[in-house]
Design a protein that fits this description.
Beta-Lactamase; elongated; 431 residues; 14 helices; 29% strand; alpha+beta; five-stranded antiparallel beta sheet; 39% helix
């Protein structure tokens, strides 16, 4: 049995041998009795604690901050049950030199010591400080958690990006695609082989891409980023032709410096291409209308008329020299009562890009008013510029006036004829 001779660290150990216990790499202590009084503490224990006056003093007096912590409760449990206990990575917060230190983590063995009658008289504690290992493991776990969260965020970003992303292996086979790419290209779930490369698309001139011309294959072959390339692809599910603008990026270099993967990032520009085609057609038609003077056409901003065809100049009575000199202004050709309607039309165009056609009047250079029907669409929003189509309603108005005059003359003739018939009837009755 362990015995004690004298205060502090360094008592006689009887059969256990102080020198043997002091030479162990573990911290060793022996506490006895229900008060858990220290009867032995190894030199490493005293060094770790920063004090040597422990022998003969209860554990709760030497280390009051340990009360209620796992090591303290483990010793109490062994004294009560007499069963050996072992714990790994137990947290213990100890004071050293009167200051609270950061948590320590220890692996401990709590061995009951019995007297000749078999009664538990104390507990021999072997503890090894594993704080560095535990903190390293915690850091690794935290790093793994951050990595997992980062991967989850990356996957979420990958899945929700509006841009298509396709991954290729070293042979140029598709090994994955995000939902946007699958939607644009019509990719189906499952393995994707060489056929996926063969149908990747066509050049802008309509010629098909050869496999080695694909941006991803160039990136894999050269190890360089391939900047924006425009191509057409056929959606595998719908058969629809889509325009895309793509870039390819190499990734995951091997020991020889060759990329093992490549990513193609692309944007669906089909609607943009369609809008450009519609604009070209609109400009072609606008050019024909200007040249043929079928109706008045002009380009303007909020101050002046910038360009106009001869038909419009004829409607308002100005010359091309007036136009080039900037003498044709909205205020000059707009009667005051139409200013509010024009202002509302401009605001509508600013919001929506166009305004609904409406009837109005222009002020002719000679002073008379010209009835017109106008409609417009914005060319630019900032600053606001638009093109306007003008239909001269003068002929229609003259026709309506002539028709009204004709109807009036017809009505007057009918009335005159009826009056003559009445007079004739009166004369016949008088005879």
């Amino acid at each position: 049995m362990v015995s004690r001779e004298g205060p502090g660290c360094g008592p006689s150990l009887g059969d256990l041998g102080r020198d043997v216990l002091d030479s162990l790499p573990a911290v060793v202590a022996y506490v006895a009795g229900p008060d858990m009084v220290f009867e032995f503490a190894s030199a490493s224990f005293c060094q770790a604690l920063g004090r040597g006056d422990v022998i003969g003093r209860p554990l709760r007096e030497v280390l009051p901050e340990l009360v209620g912590q796992p090591p303290y409760e483990a010793i109490r449990d062994v004294l009560r049950t007499g069963e050996r206990r072992q714990a790994r990575g137990q947290e213990a917060r100890l004071s050293k030199g009167g200051a609270q230190s950061q948590p320590a983590y220890i692996d401990s063995v709590y061995q009951p010591v019995r007297d000749k009658a078999g009664q538990v008289t104390g507990v021999l504690v072997f503890s090894t400080d594993v704080s560095d290992h535990v903190r390293d493991r915690q850091q690794l776990e935290e790093l793994a958690g951050r990595l997992q969260r980062s991967e989850e965020q990356y996957q979420t970003l990958f899945d929700t990006l509006p841009h298509g992303i396709v991954r290729y292996d070293q042979e140029g086979f598709v090994i994955g695609a995000n939902p946007a790419a699958a939607e644009i290209l019509g990719l189906v779930p499952g393995p994707m082989g060489p056929a996926e490369r063969a149908r990747q698309g066509r050049h802008e001139d309509g010629t098909p891409y050869r496999p080695e011309e694909l941006p991803a294959m160039i990136a894999l072959r050269t190890g360089a980023v391939v900047p924006e390339v425009t191509a057409t692809v056929r959606n595998a599910r719908t058969g629809e032709i889509r325009w895309i603008r793509s870039s390819a990026v190499p990734d995951a270099w091997d020991a020889q410096g060759r990329p093992q993967r490549a990513y193609t990032v692309f944007t669906d520009i089909t609607e943009q291409r369609r809008a450009q085609a519609a604009l070209r057609e609109s400009n072609r038609l606008l050019g024909r209308l200007r040249e043929e003077n079928v109706l008045g056409v002009l380009v303007a901003d909020e101050q002046v008329i910038l360009e106009a065809n001869d038909a419009f100049l004829d409607i308002i009575g100005y010359t091309r020299r007036d136009l080039e000199a900037g003498r044709i202004t909205w205020k000059g050709i707009t009667p005051p009562q139409w200013a509010q309607a024009d202002g509302e039309a401009v605001e509508q165009m600013r919001r929506t890009g166009a305004f609904q056609p409406y009837d109005k009047e222009y002020q002719h250079r000679d002073g008379h008013r010209v009835p017109v029907l106008i409609g417009a669409a914005a060319i630019e929003r900032t600053p606001l510029r638009w093109t306007t189509f003008v239909v001269d309603l003068s002929a229609r108005q003259r026709g309506e006036q002539e028709r009204a005059e004709l109807l009036a003359r017809e009505q007057a003739a009918r009335l005159a004829a009826e009056a003559a018939q009445d007079r004739l009837a009166l004369l016949l009755e008088a005879r």
